[in-house]
Amino acid sequence: MHRNNTIENTVMSDDKKDSNQQFKAGKDMLTANLLAILKGWSAYGYDLVQRLEESGFGAYNKGTVYRALRHMEAMGLVSSAWDTSTTGPARRMYQLTKAGSLFLDNWIGVLDTHRAMLESFTKPAINAADTIESPPPKNNPRDEPKTGVDSPE
Q1: Both ends of the chain: CA-CA distance in Å?
Q2: Contacts with 108 (C-beta within 8 Å, 6 or more apart), sequence order
Q3: Model pLDDT for residues 75-127, shown as the tens digit of each residue
Q4: DSSP character for 153?
Q5: What value does the mean pLDDT take over residues 38-43?
Q6: 86-91: Cβ within 8 A, 24+ apart
């Protein structure tokens, strides 16, 4: 079996063990990031792509973001409406729904739980490293004060 070592690895869901129900970290992270950006305001898809890039998430393929938005809308996490108020073609305006806000809050809770768990795993190792005494420094003969005939005093 080939294993892909990217964020796109899939892990079986705990509640559904069939192959149709899988968790994709990359897709869910994109969903969570889009929901977080939409919290408190509405935006066009293009604006969301720009905000992702400006936030340091890299350049997402616009098609990937638009597909994610359509999927999020089908799941009830966002809603959209056509904006025809400007000249030019109509553009779709996205906004967060109550379900999207709950999804985002739950996602943040999961991340907090994982962060705490990782800290509990790493804290003993950090504490152990802190208690290891470093060896005393070796005396360098050049650092010792010179005494005797050759010493100018």
Answers
A1: 78
A2: 32
A3: 999 999 999 888 888 999 999 999 999 999 999 999 999 999 998 888 877 77
A4: -
A5: 93
A6: 91/44, 91/45, 91/46
Q: Residue 28 is encoded by which pair of tokens? A: 């869910």
pLDDT band at 59 (very low <50, low <70, confident <90, very high): confident
Q: What are phi and psi of 5, to 5 degrees?
A: -95, 35
Strands, DSSP E only, in 50-130? 78-83, 91-96
Query: What are the angstrom distances between the C-alpha of 15 and each of 11, 42, 61, 114?
Result: 12, 33, 31, 18
Tokens standing for residue 32: 């969570």
Which residues are CB-contacts of 122 (< 8 A; sequence separation ≥ 6)?
none
Biggest CA-to-CA distance, the chain: 96
pLDDT the model gives residue 55: 85
